[in-house]
């Protein structure tokens, strides 16, 4: 019986959740959790904030599942809810800025003596890309994460971000133009 729930597509899982199946939303979240977490983390640049945003978004999706109109894929709908939760957190943080504690700041920095897994070239490149992304405005960063890092089409990203496809293209273009000089040395290496 348990394998039957995993055989359902996303729309069927959402319908089963709305109909009262307690396993359906858990399976739906399991399928999308990694991408939702990555989106939140790259948008907010803080693991705790990202975790909170995903939790808030999933509670909202759980409660509002009956309102899903089917205009987009269920995964796109979930991503839209997560990006909205991230934007809400960013707006709240801007309205009530606070300085992080020194320990929290130091914990976010690379350690002076990196472990073996941190010494790989891939980890160094990922860190440089993350730092470069952090310097972009949040709207450009969100568009680039969706299109270039998570592989969404421009139309899908526009649906998630709630804007026109041309706006997504423009944000990606401006973001790439800002990233290029910061990351050019990676291509030359």
What does this molecule look like?
This protein has 189 residues and is an all-alpha fold. It folds into 2 domains: 97 residues, RNA polymerase sigma factor, region 2, helix turn helix motif (Rna Polymerase Sigma Factor, Chain: A), CATH 1.10.1740.10; 74 residues, Winged helix-like DNA-binding domain superfamily/Winged helix DNA-binding domain (Arc Repressor Mutant, subunit A, Orthogonal Bundle), CATH 1.10.10.10. It has 10 helices and no strands. Helix 5 packs across helix 9. The longest helix has 24 residues. The termini are far apart. About 10% of the residues have low confidence.
CATH superfamily of the largest domain: RNA polymerase sigma factor, region 2, helix turn helix motif
* Low confidence ranges: 97-115
**Which class of secondary structure composition applies to the elements?**
mainly alpha
Quote the CATH topology of the largest domain: Rna Polymerase Sigma Factor, Chain: A
> Quick one: how many beta strands?
0
Q: Specify the biggest β-sheet.
A: none
């Amino acid at each position: 019986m348990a394998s039957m729930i995993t055989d359902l597509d996303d729309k069927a899982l959402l319908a089963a959740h709305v109909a009262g199946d307690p396993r359906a939303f858990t399976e739906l979240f399991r399928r999308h959790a990694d991408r939702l977490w990555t989106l939140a983390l790259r948008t907010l640049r803080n693991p705790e904030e990202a975790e909170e945003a995903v939790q808030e978004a999933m509670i909202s999706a759980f409660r509002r599942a009956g309102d899903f109109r089917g205009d987009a894929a269920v995964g796109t709908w979930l991503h839209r809810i997560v990006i909205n939760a991230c934007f809400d957190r960013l707006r709240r943080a801007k309205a009530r800025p606070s300085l992080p504690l020194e320990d929290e700041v130091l914990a976010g920095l690379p350690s002076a003596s990196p472990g073996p897994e941190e010494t790989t070239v891939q980890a160094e490149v990922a860190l440089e890309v993350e730092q470069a992304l952090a310097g972009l405005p949040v709207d450009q960063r969100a568009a680039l994460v969706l299109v270039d890092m998570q592989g969404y089409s421009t139309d899908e990203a526009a649906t998630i971000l709630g804007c026109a496809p041309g706006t997504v293209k423009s944000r990606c273009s401006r973001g790439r133009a800002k990233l290029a000089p910061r990351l050019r040395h990676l291509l030359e290496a």
